[in-house]
Amino acid sequence: MIRLISIFLLVAVANSAIALDSFDKGKLGTVPDNWKAGITGKGVSNWTLEKDSSAPSSPLVLNQSGIGEFPWCVRKDSHLADGFVAVKFKAISGREDQAAGIIWRWKDANNYYVARANALENNISIYYVKDGQRNTLQYADVPDGLLVKQNKWQSFRVDFKGERIIVSFEGKTIIDIMDDHIKREGSIGLWTKSDSITSFDNFTYGEK
């Protein structure tokens, strides 16, 4: 039985297309090649490659320092219906929010899913954005012994297949729900909120 499970896992891994963007290629102070940045709602986004010697894969990270409702940055060449997105993030500052988000099934600036971790509230949440309006699907506090910390690199991941969405933080499943508001393939990317200044590194993704 164990052998059969191992074979199944090996086949699943072999059939998954996994890609990594460490943000270490590109011009300092600009949006990375093959990415595009914008905002949902009012305000300004400012996504730039910056130096950070503390990053999981230094020297560069993708940083968002603009102030606006929901700044986003998505990969132009990504078209996933089912898959996963994982990233390392560092919540640097923010008086109203210290948020780090993952976007998937992004159709345009006003229609997509997003999962976010918040260092001020110490929780994880999932939303769907429809016609520019953010709608809450679920909030969850992180388990005892875990904290969404300021100025510390931490791991964040979303797995999505059909209606099922699983959000993990630091390797632990935090939310596991079913939802079908945003269907079919779309782009993947990153997201922040309000006055959050957040850095991202090691953006990993794949199909399922």
Number of domains: 1
What's the mean pLDDT score?
92
Work out the helicity level: under 10%
Low-pLDDT sequence parts: 1-15
Distance between the termini: 23 Å
What is the number of beta strands?
15
CATH superfamily: Exo-inulinase, domain 1
| Count of alpha/pi helices | 1
**How does the overall form come out from the CA principal axes?**
globular
Strand content: over 45%
Oligomer: single chain
Largest sheet: 8 strands, antiparallel
Rg over CA atoms? 16 Å
Commentary on this structure:
- With 208 residues, the chain is mostly beta strands.
- The protein has a single domain (18-207), classed as Jelly Rolls.
- The protein has one helix and 15 strands; from the N terminus they run αβββββββββββββββ.
- The strands form two sheets. Strands 1, 3, 4, 6, 11, 12, 13 and 15 form an eight-stranded antiparallel sheet that branches. Strands 2-5-14-7-8-9-10 form a seven-stranded antiparallel sheet, with no helix packed on it.
- Strand 12 and strand 13 form a beta hairpin.
Quick overview:
The protein has 208 residues and is mainly beta. 6% of the residues lie in helices and 55% in strands.
Keywords:
208 residues; mainly beta; Jelly Rolls; 8-stranded antiparallel β-sheet; 7-stranded antiparallel β-sheet; 1 helix; disordered N terminus
Task: Write the SSE topology.
Layout: H1 2-14, E1 18-21, E2 35-43, E3 47-51, E4 60-64, E5 68-75, E6 83-93, E7 99-108, E8 111-118, E9 123-130, E10 133-141, E11 154-161, E12 164-169, E13 172-178, E14 187-191, E15 197-207
Antiparallel strand pairs: 1-15, 2-5, 3-4, 4-15, 5-14, 6-11, 6-15, 7-8, 7-14, 8-9, 9-10, 11-12, 12-13
